[in-house]
Each structure stands twice: as C-alpha cells, then as structure tokens.
Amino acid sequence: MEKLTLKETVAEHTSSWSQGRLTLQNYQGFWNVQNLHEGTVLAQQSFKAQPSDVFICSFPKTGTTWLKALAFAITTRQTFDESMSPLLTTLPHECVPFLEEDLGQIEENHKKTNFPLVSTHIPYPCLPKSIIDSNCKIVYIYRNTKDVIVSYYHFIRKWLNMRVEDAPFEEAFLEFYQGISWCGPYWDHILGYWKASMERPGKILFLKYEDMKRDPTSNVKTLAEFIGHPFSMEEEEAGTIENIIKLCSFENLSNLEVNKSGKHRPETSTSIENRLYFRKAKDGDWKKYFTDEMVRKIDKLVDQKLSGTGLVLN
Ligand code: A3P
C-alpha cells in the first residue's frame, strides 16, 4: 500500500456552533471530517474496484442507512429469508462496508466472496479512479435539502454530545448554506453524480428519499433490477418485495435491540451509538426549525444551483 499523503488539504474550518468540537478539512473542493478525509485519500491511493462492485453513494443524512438495508436484503435474499436476516441483529452500516473506513474488509470480500456492495460518501469527482475505470454501477440517494440540514444538525450535535441549547441551529444552518458541512456543499455533491449519470447512462441510478417513502414497491423493484437481482414473478406473488420493505422499514429497524442500544465501531475514536442513525424519518420535519428567511435563502440558492438540471430538492 502506498504511503498516505494529505498534501491537497487546502483549508480547515472549526464549526462555531459546535463549540470547537467539529473541525472540517477542505479537500478537492469538499469538506470532510479528519478520519474520513484520511480514509478518502487512502481509498484514492489504493482501492481497486471490481467491475461487479455496486456502490451505494450518498451525502450524509439522505437515507444511506435505509438504502444499505434494502440493497443488502435484496442481494442476500436467497441466503437469508426475512426471519433470519443479519439485519435483525446487525446495524445496516455493518452489513455493507464503508469505503472510507472499511478498506480491509472490502479487500477481503473481493478475495473470498462475490458480495458486491460498497457504500461511500465520497463526492463523485473525488472517487478512486478505479471505480470510474471499472464502470461500476452506482446507486445515489438524495433528499430534500431542508430535511437533510435538520437531520445533519441533530446527528452531529448528538455525536458531539451537545445539548440543543448549546448548539444554535441558526449557526449550523448558515454554515451548511455556505457549503461547509461534512461532504458539503450538498448541491455540488449531488451535481457531481447527476452530471456523471448523464455521461454514463444506465450506470448511475438516482433514488429520491421522498419518492421511496411514497412508493416503496416500485422503487425497490427498480433498485433490485438495477443492481442485477430482479424479483421473479413467483417472488412478487409470494410477497417478497413487501417483506423486504417491512424488514427495512424505519419502524422495524429503529425498534430492534441492536439499533437501540448497540455501538458502531466501538473501538475507534469515531465510535457512535447505533440509535443516532435512526431519528424520525419524517418528511417536512424542517418546518419546526426554519424561519421564513431561512426558507427563502436556501430555496433560492438550491434553485440557482440546480437550475436546468431537472432535479428538484426543495
Ligand atoms: P431524520 O434525521 O430526518 O430522522 P443516513 O442514513 O444517510 O445517515 O440518513 C439518516 C436519516 O434517515 C435520518 O433522518 C433517519 O431517521 C432516516 N432513516 C434511518 N433509517 C431509515 C429507514 N429504514 N427508513 C427511512 N428513513 C430512515
């Protein structure tokens, strides 16, 4: 493995609303937290994708946990039926390895099995070159910007052990609006994948969190077909799709013991309680947090950024 170099880090920012507890690095135009920045550089330097790999790509807090659970349940359904799925006892993030932190495990998977799923928050322009060269399939999930901001605020706040009273939402909003957030700017993250999907038709599937909630059946069918595990007629008639949707639902996953009391990466400095991945899963929760001025500002910015792309985020 080549030596890790961080020479392209150009700026550092300590979030004011985090009372100095959250420092982000800017690398190749995007912000990241320290250990994931290092993981990104390491992946860029050494990761060798295989053409059969399927990447679950997302900006944090857009529905990654849900998409990982669904993709895992779809690809492993011949091995485990819903009553004995590893998802009942394991956090979805441990079922699907994360490129920035689980390089070793992914390399083992490549050697031992043909388990194809890998997840990442790395922006498209920063992806390891071998992912692009191998022409791997990518599934990208995105979500209403305002709900992402609220979800992000609570996730980071709880991760840093901060009380709401000590972490002003207005400041967190302003930073996100300026593009300074873990993996931000959000709109640039989306646009990188969106433009690539135009250049690589059939290789990048875009799923919208709100659409998946509104119509999970057709979205799960689309996902299964795209990742090469379509449902047979017999499976459809036997209710396999509905069973997978139920298994991966917020109501089910968030009430499992492992997701209520377990810890993710307990041995590391970024250890996190599993329950932080499950908050409300509600569309429009932002209405409780945003002032009219915030709505006006962010809607205007996002409309400008996505103008002419066909994507709607507000
Ligand atoms: P909220 O904070 O709005 O509740 P990510 O998985 O990318 O970190 O995103 C987390 C968001 O997805 C959180 O949103 C979380 O509650 C929601 N979520 C987690 N599991 C889900 C599931 N199975 N179905 C729908 N939403 C889910």
Automatic annotation (TrEMBL):
Matching SUPFAM superfamilies: P-loop containing nucleoside triphosphate hydrolases
Keyword Transferase appears in the UniProt entry: yes
EC number: 2.8.2.-
Native source organism of the sequence: Deinandra increscens subsp. villosa
Name recorded for this polypeptide: Sulfotransferase
UniProt keyword terms in alphabetical order: Transferase
Signal peptide (residue range): none
Sulfotransferase domain residues: 51-310
Cited Gene3D superfamilies: P-loop containing nucleotide triphosphate hydrolases
An example Gene Ontology molecular-function term: sulfotransferase activity
The family this protein is said to belong to: Belongs to the sulfotransferase 1 family.
Broad EC category: transferase
Pfam families reported in the protein's UniProt record: Sulfotransfer_1
